[in-house]
Structures are given as C-alpha cells and as structure tokens.
Write a structure and sequence with these properties.
Elements lengths: L1 H10 L5 E7 L3 E3 L8 H12 L5 H7 L3 H6 L4 E15 H10 L1 H9 L1 H19 L6 E14 L3
C-alpha cells in the first residue's frame, strides 16, 4: 500500500481523487424457506477455495478496510452500504462463480476437483431452490468503495 500511496501522491493534482470499488458475491433473494440455505451452499464452495486466495483477494473480501486505513490523505471516505438488485438466471450466477479469480486458481491447480465442486454447487442450488438453470431469480449485489482526495 505504501507504494500505491507514493504513486497516488505523485500523479494526482491537488484535490485529485482516488476511487476504488469492488463487489461482494451476489446473494439470492426470496428463497428463505428452502430445505438448504442457498447462501450456505455458496459459502461452502468459497471455503473450499480459500487456500487459493491471494493477498489482493483477501483485501477485497475485507471490503477494503486495510486500504482505507493505509490511505494517508486526510479527506477520505469508505462506503460499504451500496446495494443493487438484479434479476438474472441461475446460469448467470454459476458463470459469475466460474469467472472468479479464486475459482480460476483452483481450476488451474486441480481441474478435476474444481469442475466437480462447481457442478456440485450448481446442482445443490438448483435442487434446494426447485428451479432450472435458466430460471430468473433476484439477486442482491453489495458494492463497497474507498474515496480519497489529495490535499491542496
């Protein structure tokens, strides 16, 4: 982070802004009375992926708290309560999981088990939700960001 701040200090004009944002894993809405909690199914998959996390992913999962603390500019703000709702098919969500950096690392290291894990996660979700992969469901997506302004 020190290297980043030195570069931000160098390239930003006075009152120039730094803006960083990321999002959390989407949550499926409206399926509270399922035999199995859909969020738990996804959490279990990510627990298997944890050994493949790198420092940057851990920083993102921590909603940029470390980055915020490390920013030396006095005018800074962290927003962590930005939510959007979107309607997408379950296949979109599986594609989202498939495209995550952490899953790609697992896939590279252990292709057979990675594919089996994603397939099992998909099948468990479809079964517990009682839907097909093309069924449109509502998701909540949480964004968080860090904003900072270089002093004059």
């Amino acid at each position: 982070m020190e290297k980043f701040m030195k570069e931000a200090e160098r390239v930003l004009k006075p009152k120039g802004c730094v803006a960083l944002y990321c999002n959390d894993v989407p949550h499926i809405l409206g399926y509270d009375n399922c035999p199995e909690n859909p969020a738990r199914i996804v959490q279990e998959m990510f627990a298997l992926l944890e050994p493949y996390e790198n420092k940057e992913q851990k920083t993102a999962w921590n909603e940029y708290k470390e980055i915020f603390d490390a920013i030396t500019f006095p005018d800074k703000e962290r927003a962590e309560d930005i939510y959007i709702k979107l309607k997408k098919p379950i296949s979109w969500f599986i594609g989202y999981l498939n495209s995550s950096v952490i899953y790609k690392a697992y896939l590279k290291n252990d292709p057979e088990n990675a594919k089996a894990t994603l397939e099992k996660t998909e099948q468990r979700l479809l079964k517990t939700l009682g839907v097909s992969s093309e069924t449109i469901v509502e998701f909540s997506l949480k964004y968080y960001c860090v904003l900072a302004s270089k002093p004059e």
